[in-house]
Amino acid sequence: MTLKFNLPIDLSRLQNDRLRLVPLEDNLDEWAEAYVEDANRNPQVYDWLTYGPFANGAEYASWYNDNSRGDANELLLAILLKTGSVTRKDPVTGETTITEVADGTFAGLCGLVSQPERATADMGQLLISRFQRTFVGTNANALLLHYCLDSVAEGGLGLRRVQWQANASNVASVNAAKRLGFQWEGIIRWQQILPIGKIGSEGAGLDREGLPTVGWDGREWGPGRHTAMLSVCWEDWVGGGREHVDALVIR
Questions:
Q1: Which domains does the chain have, with CATH numbers?
Q2: CA 236 to chain centre
């Protein structure tokens, strides 16, 4: 399959001894079904997304084909586990569970939005349900950071900046970025209009007096999103960021 993504992708660089990242289009129908089945058991994963929920994999695949497929700026990747065990500690009860997984077990999604003319990429679309609070998210993000920020001589893309954008009220996402070494840059106010029913940022809800709620085309507007902006830039990466991420992966 020939990807339309506007940055070169070397899939051999997007794997380690615990998981690999593969273009979602390689097996869209099966992985879409696995994602929706898992997400619908944990519907809170949709709270901060600008789309969904989905009734089934076919509905998600249709959404993907209409909104992402063929967009050269976007790359959505399936996270596939390699044979081994996954340890998860419940944050409430403290109970630890160990799950044995087979090679190719679908664990979630992650992705990049590229701005090649700016030597910049956004990391996003990290959707993990069953394997939240395990090594999966850290390892997937580490692979993407290495690929984006390692020099061309080291096998990476040699970008100058990787961004992380999140709903400013999504504390978990902001903290996850900070844990990876992303630097806080500030809030972009009213950066998005969200679909009706989605969670707006604090202070950007529909209860604001006088807030425009209907567009020029008659379309009803949902709540607003203030966006938290964080980044890892090349000087952060070569100045200790790479070693910081590698230490997280080893834990």
A1: 11-250 (3.40.630.30)
A2: 21
